[in-house]
Design a protein that fits this description.
238 residues, alpha/beta, TIM Barrel, 6 strands, binds zinc ion
Length: 238
Amino acid sequence: MSLWISILGTGVAGGVFYFCLPWLYCRWNRLRLRRQAVRRACVVLTLDDGPGRRLTPAVLDLLAAGTVKATFFLLGRNIRENQDLVRRLRAQGHEIGSHTYDHLHAWKVAPWRCVSDIRRGFKAIDDALGVERGRYPFRPPYGKLNLVTLLYLWAKRIPIAFWTTDSGDTWLFDGSRCDRAATAVEKMGGGVVLAHDFDRESDEVHRYVLNALGAVLETAKKRGLLVSTFSQLRSVRP
Ligand SMILES: [Zn+2]
């Protein structure tokens, strides 16, 4: 009986360290990010899961029209066919970050697979750009880290990038509500907006993404908010 109790105790303690500590860190990081964005009256547009052959160029045109820069957290498996787009992102002065290679969920697969996925994601960007940098700002898929991935990122001094405001483009397909992120940014006086630039079947979703980003840029202009990249926001202490 006591053996089972000690096994159970070890399992609970292990779970607290493996899942709960990274979860608490994520919560704290997001609160800090929000405070930084609001204090600096700053908006950051972030695009995950791209590049997408159809949507990414449309997003780039929108950003160019507003003469603003965004941060793209690229997915390694989408880079292979779109290396030219990665180079275009860099040429146009946008910030490039990584979102792993295969979008593995850090709570659902073995920790060594997660670390390997992170490293493959960095390498895919390096291969596209022809550099050997090996580290980029990192956005965890689903916003989830486990203890091993968190310690790995800390050890490598890799900036971990969360968000404060979800545009809803992967779950809210009601075009009339595409100003969701803009409303939140206006209310808070700043924020880090999450959107996605991978290609979808439906042009309607593409329109949603573009309208959502456009609405945020319009709000930023109206409220006098600074539009910056993720690293520019983080470069000033709150
Ligand atoms: Zn993602």
